[in-house]
Amino acid sequence: MKTTRNTPAKTAILEIFEKSKTALSHTEIQKQLNDVCDRVTIYRILDRLMNDDIIHKISNLDGTVKYAKCNHSHQRVHIHNHAHFSCENCNEITCLENVKPSYIMPHNYKVKEINFTLSGLCPKCLNSDI
Amino acid sequence: MKTTRNTPAKTAILEIFEKSKTALSHTEIQKQLNDVCDRVTIYRILDRLMNDDIIHKISNLDGTVKYAKCNHSHQRVHIHNHAHFSCENCNEITCLENVKPSYIMPHNYKVKEINFTLSGLCPKCLNSDI
DNA sequence: AAAATAAAGCAACAATGTTGCGATTGTGTA
DNA sequence: TACACAATCGCAACATTGTTGCTTTATTTT
């Protein structure tokens, strides 16, 4: 079985996620890393972190892809069924851990994962009178 | 004020949407068009159709972007608040027009648009014993 | 310390989306 | 119906994002 290693780049990326309150794109991570490692390495680390359920992927309405730390909290089985909020002004994506949609599905569909993204104005931008 | 025109390429693309039961990516449209027009033209037509609220954009969990016809039905104000289903087997995206999530938002957020995408197995793939 | 192998770096490539500009073509109006 | 003019198109060039193969580096285990 594959063992995962702790490398400087991985540690650096985890620290960036730890510090950030919002989801980050590959590009944003790269800027914050300041050439700690190669662009490709970032992709590979993100892949590994997703496999290990440490981060999750979020795709915005516009097709932008971002990543955020998973909040494992209490659940034994880890499902990313919380909502995300995408601000159309500052483009920040935040996890709304407590917002869970309820819905009724037609028969014959097997739902395994859900992605619930709301967009509009975040509190910060709403208050700055746009 | 800008007037929009009906060009052969736009008509062809609209017909493709009309015939398709699932959402289509730029690439899928291009294949079906069989060199009716340039790749760039497709992008521009899709942009126009979105501005005119004739189609809407859907971004999948994996970051894939697709487009589908809007169903204007009864609502006066057109909001894309229906759900989409993305099949992890056949990769087709279908609009679930009647599935509308209910949710409770924290204060201070102004929600303008929502994107609710479920993924798993569609009826077609569920029945073919995977 | 050496062996085993996960991870990094580099280069090259693929897919997707954007921009500028000159040429073409729909369409309202004369 | 013909004209004028703006909307649209095609092309080339570029930007961004993501992937792959292969060699080298470095972490971990023995």
Automatic annotation (TrEMBL), chains A, B:
The keyword Transmembrane does not apply. Zn(2+) binds at residues 87, 90, 122, 125. It comes from the Bacteria. GO terms for molecular function: DNA binding; DNA-binding transcription factor activity; metal ion binding. Its cofactor is Zn(2+). Keywords: DNA-binding, Metal-binding, Repressor, Transcription, Transcription regulation, Zinc. The keyword DNA damage does not apply. Binds 1 zinc ion per subunit. Belongs to the Fur family. This is Fur family transcriptional regulator.
